[in-house]
Design brief:
Chain A: It comes from Nyctiprogne leucopyga. The structure holds two protein chains of two kinds. Chain A has eight helices and six strands; from the N terminus they run H-E-E-H-H-E-E-H-E-E-H-H-H-H. Chain A is mainly alpha-helical. The chains are: A mainly alpha, B alpha+beta.
């Protein structure tokens, strides 16, 4: 009996040995990609000599590695696809090895003008039915497309002249023209939305300084000031340029409003209060309305002139020529 | 939708589908490879390209004509081809005296060249030279990389990533276990990379796991690494970035213990145990005699005083 048991045990061990592989370092597996990475250094000596010996060595190495990989794959949760007689199918996990993408991930497009407005007002999209009841045909017809609800051209044999319109005008032509205009406006708005989205996507932050040739004195001094202050100690220890004015750092440290100390100059305070009383007492208004209105008008005119000049320069030679020809 | 966000909208459904296939998506398509011959490609290199095409069908495009370009100097023509055929992997074969039997394997990101590695073919055994039975076209291969060089050396690491990307095939959720027929084995030793393809035979063994026997099949290449053009680190990191939406959502309130039992957590509101709905047990119902005894002196009906 003992002999039989020993033989059986040996057979079992033999079977198990046939599928086990001894390796120094464990392999790394990525079953989602059917990938195995072997970190063990391959036997360099054997692989140097060319010929069948090398092939045999490579094949043995491959066999061992494949055995390990297949063992791992067989351990995955498997089921019989398509009923009891179907093939055995294993569920693969997600691929773990990070590989670069083909294209950058898609960016959500910015909302259009209508979408912004709708979000502001809280307007939500109403789902439209695909079929509409057609009174004349007395049946359900599609909203648009083949045999649509109101689109049969033979039906539109009458176009009434509206109340305040010219009786000689061709109404059919008017309807056609209006439709063309509507389509064109829609297309224009779509292109505008597209241009806005495209501009937002490829927006480069505006450079603080124009390229050489267009730099003004104020711009340069502003940029120089910003550059000076962009150090760790906020520009306190920066050496000044030879012709730059020595400006002490503002004692308020950047605060714009400064308040007088409470108990400072008593005489100044007294004079200020007396002036205030005088202004309150006098009948004459402090604000001279005519002067203020004139000032505002002058400012508006100046703005209008500047805008007109800019528009002319924008339109360029063609615009100016057209304007002159139009007049 | 991006197909409709163009200046010229597609007029047919087919054109729309074509554009939608090519636009950037959350979960991407399988990468296509283009196999290009250089101006002076010899027989070996042409055979290599044809064999790799057979392995990678249908996710590969084999260009028939020779293209006189030098990928390492000028990448514009490669990028143009990639844009036209929507391929993000390429294999360019050429031959000259200085670099005999040259293969440039590379990939693209956003139709611009990301990585390029030049490999020289020292020995090549083609599919038709090995007279064994082959596995069907389009089988997903098992990939095995042997050698510590693949982890230590940066160039070898990129090469490994490139080869995985190239030969991976479509990403599938489940696989038929009997259909694991093809294995590609890469060994890096002594500055050379040996690529061998084997057909897997699953033999019976005593236990559930089958015993593997390999049969030589398919193209086998002895490669040596020449020049490389790797992407800068930040560009590579940018290309690896996956959108957040792809991350698997973690299921809350589910935990597992050591034995594999799944525990779930349910959050309930506060319950009034007095008003719980339990089963009606007739024996426990209050009898009318018992009820009056409980009530005692408090009689519900008021006695009328005359």
């Amino acid at each position: 009996v003992e002999e039989v048991l020993a033989v059986a045990e040996e057979q079992e061990a033999e079977k198990r040995r046939s599928v086990t592989v001894e390796k120094e370092l464990e392999l790394e597996f990525d079953l989602g990609n059917l990938l195995a990475l072997d970190r063990n250094p391959p036997p360099a000596a054997g692989l140097r000599g060319a010929g069948p010996r090398r092939e045999a060595l490579l094949r043995a190495l491959a066999r061992d590695n494949t055995q390990l990989l297949v063992a791992r794959l067989w351990e995955l949760p498997a089921e019989r696809a398509g009923g009891a007689g179907g093939p055995l199918v294993a569920q693969l996990p997600e691929p773990a090895f990070r590989l670069p993408r083909e294209k950058p991930p898609p960016r959500p497009r910015p909302p259009t003008r209508w979408e912004q407005f709708a979000r502001l007002k809280g307007i939500r999209r109403r789902k439209r039915t695909s079929l509409v009841w057609d009174e004349q045909a007395k049946e359900w017809r599609r909203r648009w497309g083949y045999r649509r609800a109101g689109g049969d051209p033979a039906r539109a044999w009458l176009a009434e002249v509206p109340a305040g319109a010219d009786p000689e005008e061709d109404q059919f032509a008017r309807l056609r023209r209006e439709k063309r205009e509507r389509v064109a406006r829609n297309e224009l708005n779509r292109l505008r939305n597209l241009a806005r989205a495209h501009r937002a996507a490829t927006a480069v932050p505006a450079a603080p300084l124009h390229p050489t040739g267009h730099q003004s004195r104020e711009e340069l001094s502003h940029v120089a000031r910003v550059a000076r202050v962009s150090t760790a100690s906020l520009g306190r220890f920066q050496p000044r340029l030879p012709k730059e004015s020595a400006e002490p750092p503002s004692r308020s440290g950047g605060r714009k409003r400064r308040f007088e100390p409470l108990l400072g100059n008593l005489s100044a305070e007294r004079s200020r209060q007396l002036e205030l009383l005088r202004d309150m007492g006098s009948k004459k208004p402090v604000l001279d309305i005519t002067r203020a209105v004139n000032k505002q008008l002058r400012q508006e005119e100046a703005e209008a002139a500047a805008a007109k000049g800019k528009k002319q320069s924008q339109r360029g030679k063609r615009g100016r020529r057209q304007q002159r020809a139009g007049r | 939708m991006d197909a409709l966000d163009r200046v010229v909208k597609p007029k047919t459904k087919r054109a729309k589908r074509f554009l939608e296939k090519r636009e950037p998506k959350l979960k991407e398509n399988t990468k296509n490879a283009m196999l290009i011959k250089g101006g002076n490609a010899n027989l070996t290199v042409t055979e290599v390209l044809k064999d790799i095409y057979a392995v990678k069908k249908p996710f590969a495009v084999l260009y028939k004509k020779k293209n006189i370009t030098r990928p390492f100097e000028d990448q514009t023509s490669l990028e143009f081809f990639s844009k036209k055929s929507d391929c993000s992997l390429f294999l360019f074969g050429s031959h000259n005296k200085k670099r005999p039997n040259n293969l440039i394997i590379g990939r693209m990101f956003d139709y611009h060249v990301l990585d390029m590695i030049e490999l020289g073919v020292e020995k090549f055994v083609s599919l038709k030279d090995v007279k064994n039975s082959k596995c069907p076209e389009g089988t997903k291969p098992m990939l095995i990389f042997a050698g510590d060089v693949f982890d230590v050396n940066e160039e070898y690491r990129r090469l490994k990533s490139l080869l995985i990307d190239f030969f991976r095939g479509p990403s599938v959720p489940s696989i038929r276990l009997a259909g694991l027929e093809y294995v590609l084995h890469f060994t890096a030793v002594d500055g050379k990379i040996y690529m061998r393809s084997y057909k897997v035979l699953l033999k019976k063994s005593g236990c559930k796991i089958p015993r593997i026997e390999l049969e030589e099949m398919g193209p086998s290449l002895d490669l040596v690494m020449r020049r490389t053009h790797l992407a800068s680190d930040d560009l590579y990191k940018l290309s690896l970035k996956q959108p957040k939406a792809l991350k698997p959502k973690k299921k809350k309130n589910i935990s597992h213990d050591v034995f594999g039992t799944t525990y779930g957590r349910i959050h309930m509101q506060k319950q009034d145990l007095g008003k719980l709905q339990t089963r009606k047990m007739k024996g426990l119902k209050k009898r009318p005699a018992q009820k009056s005894a409980e009530d005692g002196g408090v009689s519900p009906k008021k006695s009328k005083s005359a």
